[in-house]
Amino acid sequence: MTTLVFMRHGETTWNRAGRYLSRTDIPLHAEGAAAVRVAAPALKVLASPFFVSSPLLRARETAAIVAGVLGMNEPEIWDDLREVDFGVFEGETEQTASRGAYASQFSAWRDPLSGNLGPPEGETWSAVDARARRVLERLQSEERDALVVSHGSFIRAILAHAVLGMSSHHLRRFRLENAAFVVLSGSPSKWVVAGHNVRALPFSG
């Protein structure tokens, strides 16, 4: 049995302000980094996991803190672990986007039943689905436990598409806070969500 732990990066100033954050490369703020240090010791239950991270700064900083706390080597960097590209909604809040020039597109983008293909100038849901599949396939090929540092929307997309069989467009049905974990256990044909939006791991890796 394999355990995959997906960790969302620590909080940034944009996260705290409720601004959509994907490709903009900003660091953790001090409290966000501190929360990662508090969460990291729970990961000691994983014995020598395969360690990978998104290339974006906030994820790499999170991974570096985790590595320091656990005495691990630096992670491999996978471009496929980057955040979903929010297109024209980058930097907006729900309030400003819902009243702006792309208000109707914003409503459709957030509604999984709308048939929306993705945000203007952003990433399509089919592209997100493809990335989710590639990530799981690469992790499965390692045939061991893994620790993955990534982003809120992309981790939830993995849950929606690759595990539950829904389009990544359904990712908003799941909540995932900064520095929290999603835990998958089992095998490629029958992944089980062993933990969602948790910071304690009450199992043996």
Mind explaining what this structure looks like?
This protein is α/β, with parallel strands linked by helices and 205 residues long. The chain has one domain: Rossmann fold (3-Layer(aba) Sandwich), CATH 3.40.50. Helices cover 36% and strands 15% of the residues. It has seven helices and six strands; from the N terminus they run βααβαβαααβαββ. It has a six-stranded mixed β-sheet. Strand 2, helix 3 and strand 3 form a beta-alpha-beta unit. Helix 6 packs across helix 7.
Topology:
Elements: E1 2-8, H1 13-17, H2 30-39, E2 50-53, H3 57-70, E3 76-77, H4 94-99, H5 103-110, H6 125-142, E4 146-150, H7 152-163, E5 181-186, E6 192-198
Parallel strand pairs: 1-4, 2-3, 2-4
Antiparallel strand pairs: 1-5, 5-6
Helix pairs in contact: 6-7
Which features does this protein show?
single chain, 205 residues, alpha/beta, Rossmann fold
Question: Brief description of this entry?
Answer:
Helix content is 36%, strand content 15%. The chain is α/β, with parallel strands linked by helices and 205 residues long. It has a single domain (2-85, 124-198), classed as Phosphoglycerate mutase-like (Rossmann fold, 3-Layer(aba) Sandwich), CATH 3.40.50.1240.
What does the radius of gyration come to? Answer: 16 Å
Largest sheet: 6 strands, mixed
Fraction of residues in H or I helices: 25-40%
Mean residue pLDDT: 94
Give the CATH class.
Answer: Alpha Beta
- What share of the residues does DSSP label as strand, in percent? 15-25%
* CATH-defined topology: Rossmann fold
Give the helix/strand class.
alpha/beta
CATH architecture: 3-Layer(aba) Sandwich
Note the gap between the termini: 9 Å
What's the shape? globular
Please indicate the count of domains: 1
Q: How many helices?
A: 7
What topology, given as strand order, has the largest sheet? 3-2-4-1-5-6
Q: Identify low-pLDDT runs.
A: none
- CATH superfamily, please? Phosphoglycerate mutase-like
Number of strands: 6
The arrangement of helices and strands along the chain is EHHEHEHHHEHEE
